[in-house]
Design goal:
386 residues; mainly alpha; 69% helix; 0% strand; disordered N terminus
C-alpha cells in the first residue's frame, strides 16, 4: 500500500487500473477511476469553508463565499458518493479491495479516512452555516449525526489498523504520511465537537465535549507513534520523489487539528463540564482548563509549523518536477488545520497581530484552493489524471 512511487501520495488508480476498456467492461472502467483518493478534494473544500466562517475580521462577502464553498463541497461529495457506489455496484469485488488490498503497491485503503473526514467537515459546515437559518431541529439532528459519526469512525479505525497490523508486512523505508489517514477522522472529532457545542443545550453539550477530548486523545497518541516512524524514515532513506512531496504536508494536519481541538474545547469548558464536576461547580475548573488548553495549544503550534516548513522546503527543492496529482490536495487540507489552530490561538490571546496573520493565511489558503482545483481539473480534462 505504500511501496511504490505511484501510490505515495494518493495518485489514484495505477496504470494497470487504467487498461483499455472493452465493450463488455466499459461501464466498469468508466467508474474504476473513482477511489477514496478523490475524497481528499472534499476534505480540502470542506476545510476551506470552515476556515472562511471562523477567520477573524469577517464581512458579508466572506460569509457568502463560505456558503458557496460549502455548497460546492456538498455537491462534490454527493457526486463522488454516487460514482464510487456505481463502481462497487458494477464490480462488488472492488468493495473489499478498496478497504483492504493485499497488494502493497496500492494505497487506496489508507484513504478511506478521507471519506470520514469529509463527513466531519460537512457536519461542521451544516452546524456553522445551517443552524442559524434552520433552528432547533437541525441542532438535534447534528447531535444525533455526531454520535453516529463517532461510533462509525471508531469501529473503522480499530478494524482498519487491526487488519494492517495482522495481515500486512510493510517496510519502513516505504512509509509516507498517508499511513496517518485511517486515524484522521478521529483527529477532526475534537474540532467537530467544539463547533457543535456552540448550539447545543448543556445536557447534550457535555457528553459531546467529553467525547471530543477522548477522541482527540486517541487520534493524537496514534499520530505520535506514526510521527516517530516518519522521522526514522526521513533519517534513514531519501525523501519522497518531487512529484509526491506535496503529500508531506499531511504530517502538518494531526498536530494542527489537535491544537484547534484543545483550544476550542478548553474555551468551551464552562459549557462542556458536567455540573457538578468533581463535587464542585464547574465554573472555577473551567477557567483552569481554559488556561491549560491555551498553553498546551501554544506549546504544540510551533511543532505543526515545523512540519509545514520542512514540507514547504522539500516541495520547493523539487518544484520543477511537480505535476498535478491528487497529492496536491495536501497543500490545502493540512494547512487549513494550521490556519484554524492559529485562529483559535488568536481568539484566546485576543491578539490583533495573530488575527492579521490569520487573515493572510486564509487568503493564501483560498488562492491555493483555486489553483489546485484549476490544475487538477485541467489535468483531468487532458486525460493526465484518472
Amino acid at each position: 500500500m505504500g511501496g511504490s512511487t505511484e501510490s505515495l501520495g494518493g495518485n489514484g488508480p495505477t496504470p494497470q487500473d487504467r487498461e483499455k476498456p472493452t465493450r463488455s467492461n466499459y461501464g466498469f472502467h468508466s467508474f474504476r477511476g473513482f477511489t477514496w483518493h478523490q475524497f481528499t478534494g472534499t476534505m480540502s473544500t470542506g476545510s476551506l469553508a470552515v476556515v472562511l466562517y471562523q477567520t477573524p475580521y469577517q464581512f458579508s462577502g466572506l460569509v457568502t463565499a463560505g456558503k458557496v464553498i460549502f455548497i460546492i463541497d456538498l455537491v462534490f461529495f454527493a457526486l463522488l458518493c454516487i460514482c464510487i457506489c456505481l463502481r462497487f455496484f458494477i464490480n462488488p469485488e472492488q468493495i473489499v479491495k478498496s478497504v483492504y488490498d493485499s497488494d502493497q503497491n496500492h494505497d487506496e485503503p489508507f484513504y478511506l479516512g478521507a471519506f470520514g473526514v469529509s463527513l466531519a467537515l460537512l457536519l461542521q459546515c451544516i452546524s456553522l452555516y445551517g443552524v442559524p437559518a434552520c433552528g432547533p431541529w437541525l441542532v438535534k439532528a447534528c447531535e444525533v449525526l455526531f454520535w453516529i459519526y463517532f461510533a462509525c469512525i471508531l469501529v473503522v479505525a480499530v478494524l482498519q489498523y487491526q487488519t494492517l497490523f495482522v495481515t500486512q508486512d510493510f517496510n519502513l523505508d516505504s512509509m509516507t504520511p498517508s499511513w496517518l489517514m485511517p486515524i484522521y477522522p478521529l483527529l477532526v472529532t475534537g474540532p467537530l465537537a467544539g463547533v457543535l457545542m456552540q448550539h447545543q443545550p448543556h445536557e447534550s453539550a457535555s457528553p459531546i465535549w467529553i467525547c471530543g477530548i477522548a477522541a482527540q486523545g486517541l487520534g493524537w497518541m496514534v499520530t505520535v507513534l506514526m510521527y516517530a516512524m516518519w522521522a526514522i524514515r526521513l533519517l534513514t532513506t531519501e525523501i519522497p520523489p518531487p512529484v509526491m512531496r506535496p503529500s508531506m504536508f499531511v504530517a502538518v494536519g494531526p498536530t494542527a487539528y489537535t491544537v484547534t481541538a484543545i483550544v476550542a474545547l478548553g474555551s468551551s469548558a464552562s459549557t462542556g463540564l458536567p455540573d457538578p464536576f468533581l463535587g464542585e461547580p464547574p465554573k472555577a475548573a473551567a477557567a483552569t482548563i481554559n488556561v491549560i488548553a491555551v498553553v498546551a495549544g501554544t506549546f504544540l503550534w510551533l511543532f505543526a509549523f515545523w512540519f509545514f516548513a520542512l514540507s514547504a522546503v522539500a516541495v520547493a527543492l523539487g518544484s520543477r518536477k511537480l505535476t498535478p496529482n491528487y497529492s496536491w490536495w495536501s497543500f490545502i487540507f493540512p494547512n487549513a488545520g494550521l490556519t484554524l489552530a492559529t485562529i483559535q490561538l488568536g481568539k484566546a490571546y485576543d491578539s490583533p497581530a495573530i488575527n492579521h496573520l490569520c487573515s493572510v493565511m486564509t487568503g493564501a489558503l483560498f488562492l491555493g484552493w483555486l489553483f489546485v482545483s484549476a490544475s487538477l481539473l485541467n489535468a483531468v480534462r487532458k486525460g493526465k489524471l484518472g
